[in-house]
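Quick start: read one record
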Amino acid sequence: MPPLPAEIFKAYDIRGIVGESLTESIVESIGKAIGSEALSLGERSVIIGRDGRLSGPVIAGALARGIQATGCDVVDIGIVPTPLTYFATHHLGIGSAVSVTGSHNPPQYNGLKIMIAGDTLSGDRIQALRRRVEQGELASGTGGHRTEDIRPAYRDRVTEDISLKRPLKVVIDCGNGVAGGIAPQLLRDIGCEVIDLFSEVDGTFPNHHPDPSQLENLQDVITTVSEEKAEFGMALDGDGDRLGVVSADGSVIWPDRQLLLFAQDVLQRNPGAEIIYDVKCSRVLPEAIAAAGGQPTMWKTGHSFIKAKLKETGAALAGEMSGHIFFKERWYGFDDGIYAAARLCELLARHPESPATVFSGIPDTVSTPELRLEMSEGEHHILIDQLIKSARFPGGEICNIDGVRVDFENGFGLARASNTTPTVILRFEADDRSMLEKIQAQFRSQLLSIRADLDLPF
């Protein structure tokens, strides 16, 4: 077998441009590797779900052919959000699944999020699929194929778990992503009055990109909340596993703030529980978790890394700054933007104050959005490795679990290598603007001492 394009094998998933780095034959080969790996671990079937991208049927078809060619069976659950693919593994009792999704990448992309025998693949286990193909370590057989509709079971499971103390008027923007087919109605089923935006699944994403981590993609939901006098608004990403939230006054409740509210809620029922958050989150978060009687644990960014840590520790809840929220309490421990939206509604409906008042009670800081230093492939890892070796931050506490995070008494700074693009991700937060600038100045001088020609974004 000729070598597969190395660049599609990312840290958390497989992703590429359809027809270029991600062709039918490449996906079929990867399907053979997935089927072989599943069989080697005693699995007999693999579930396939896909998002609403135009290339979905072709990519999912090639994947199914590859998996079946190993003798492994395929269970096709059709067009569903990624969390429903994960849910299907629990509901059907099948430990392996692939979500065919380009997540929030542009329309020409597609990809594979892979779970085998209950573990979401990341890092070396994704590379191992490539090695399996290139070394020809592939099983051979004729697997079966059947279809299942998992949506009614998911709806029933959520509505059994969640009901609202009072009705809430909310806006939900699905950004023409795959969650549009299920999220608005599910919120109505639990007791919300819902104004929904862009719920028609359309893989060209004609209104805005379905990525709620970017402020420009939240403008429609912010405007509609104001016009409709809704209590708050929510937005989902292209495959439904990430949540964005906006208050009635138009301010964005970033995911580390969402996680703070969820943690306080979960800890009321589970005192002393461990709560996991990624290195990009506010330092306000661990302080609030500890104050609520919880045990805060910081971990690497990446949905598969967080999921593995959740499984390892038995934590009740985890979350990432990118918007992935993982509930283990009352749920299954996978990232699910739709379920997180329902839990947020439940939490806010129980409060005697308005959602705006609850949101405004979250401690405020001065912070930057995620800043990105674009580099050539591989250079970003070299820069961060050098920074780890040479870092000198007087008055700061350095943590190297994922890049360089430095916590000061009044703020923090972070520089880490992205695992999905050749980019250094930077983020800064402080109690006030002058402290923020001091932290940035320290990072600036450390980075420029390694490479004086860097075009820093701060």
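The chain has a mean pLDDT of 97.
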